[in-house]
Amino acid sequence: MFEWKGMLAGWESTILFVLLLFLLIVLFAPGRRPPNFPPGLPMLPLLGSLLHMQGISLRGLLRKLKKEYGNMASFGVFGTGVVLVSKMSIIKEVYSHKASAGRPPMILGATRNYLLSDGKEGDLGLLGGTGPHWVELRRFLLRHLRDFGIGKTSCEPMIRAEVEELLEHIKNQNGQPIVMEHLFHRSVLNVLWGMVTGSRFKYGDKKLAKTLESFVKLADINLVSIIFFIPGVVKAMMYLPMLDRFVKPIGNICKFIREEIENYRSKKDWENIHSLLTLYLTEMKKYNGDHPIFNEHQLRAVMFEMFAAGMATTASTLTMGMYLVAKHPDVQQRVHQELDEVIGRERLPCYADLESLPYTRATIHEVQRVLNLIAFVVHCALEDCNFEGYDIPKGTVFLANMEDAMTDPKLWKNPDEFDPNNFLDDNGKYVKNGAFVPFGIGKRQCVGEALARMEVFVFLSSLFQKFTFTLVGEEVPPGNLYTFNAPVEFNAVAHVRPHL
Ligand code: HEM
């Protein structure tokens, strides 16, 4: 008689089991290339393209993908399809569509949410949020930030106060090299914190300095490393000592944010302070903290994002501005000449001077183009969609290839150099370039854009009016680059420009 039991005994049954499992994985596991998906690296079930991504940096991989597969190129990581979108006209088409306005789960946000909500995680904050809660939170923040004068002349005195203090600090270096580390962070944060909490940090504030250290450590970590695509990794990483260097700095920033909120709430008169925090706490009180937006965890996440997204971005831009202008004495001289002719050296420049300072304006935009702070803007598909004839399933991650767009010779006169002429016509008039989108495109465009534009212009034009910068010593290019760019590390001396 035919005996199944006998047939399947021993090593044969093991092999059969493995083959069956393999077949099931091949047939049903997610991660294979979906039909009519953009071309790209081979995608295996579960593993995606991992076997083809070994020994190459993320930047190297993305450059290779664009070169080999064109403007819509794909790869896969642990069941998630990723599409690299290049060429400005296609980036605009994809990113301004409502279907691409999602944000995939990202490790920084997930870890932060875990730590801020005592392990409950969930969909917190604006930067990583999606869906109706994100829409409501974004509306609330945009409305109130506008009320605080973001982008209007009413917020300029706050910027001016920080600029004046910074100019004095630099002057007091008396021609000694300026300590660049964190030079701009406190000033930039103070403008924002003035609106968020109605308070500011003094020079040398120890708690802030410690938190900034954590912040800088975070910048060295690959936030899109493939390891972070593994489901459940956030929980695991809390217990893995090797990931301590990632969790600890986020933990320190979370602690700082919690303490800021607690200190604020302990003030007797917090309800009378004109600040975003008072508005938020008042809404929370109205709902007794039981509201998807106005609750303790969301508040912490919003504060975290104001701190992180608002400070480092603007501070890096200012640092790079000082570096690039010092590095190009011809540009520095023309900026000086324009500022002297239009404003003189007495009163500080203000945002209303923007139109009458075309060369300075073009120089500052060129700083942002060359820095290209967020080189690959990450979104994800909220629904099945079709772009450029390809079918993109819901959940697919998009990477906007801003690196490619900012150096496209069809869009820029001199894409590979630092050259303000990229924003000037032959008569020296400022010309808008539609490809210059440092604050993103579409529904997720930066909520701090108006503030950042104003800050970058007022800070940099004031610095250039008052000082001539020269570089000293060695320059260190930024280390590992992932989806963000960082400024060069350098030392500079500021020479005071005498009164005319
Ligand atoms: C030079 C300075 C800045 C640059 C270059 C910059 C750039 C960007 C970019 C490219 C995005 C992503 C847009 C997208 O996903 O499509 C973004 C988002 C964001 N930015 Fe900024 N940003 C700057 C300053 C600020 C400031 C000062 C704040 C604080 C008010 C801020 C808060 C945010 C927030 C909360 C988001 C997330 C928006 C969302 O997902 O709905 N940023 N920023």
Automatic annotation (TrEMBL):
The entry sums up its family as follows:
Belongs to the cytochrome P450 family.
Q: Which residue ranges does UniProt annotate as crossing the membrane? A: 7-29, 215-234
Needed co-factor(s):
heme
- What is the name of the protein in this document? Cytochrome P450
**Which keywords are on file for this protein?**
Heme, Iron, Membrane, Metal-binding, Monooxygenase, Oxidoreductase, Transmembrane, Transmembrane helix
| Keyword Cytoplasm on entry | no
Annotated organism of origin? Cherax quadricarinatus (Australian red claw crayfish)
The organism's place on the tree of life at top rank: Eukaryota
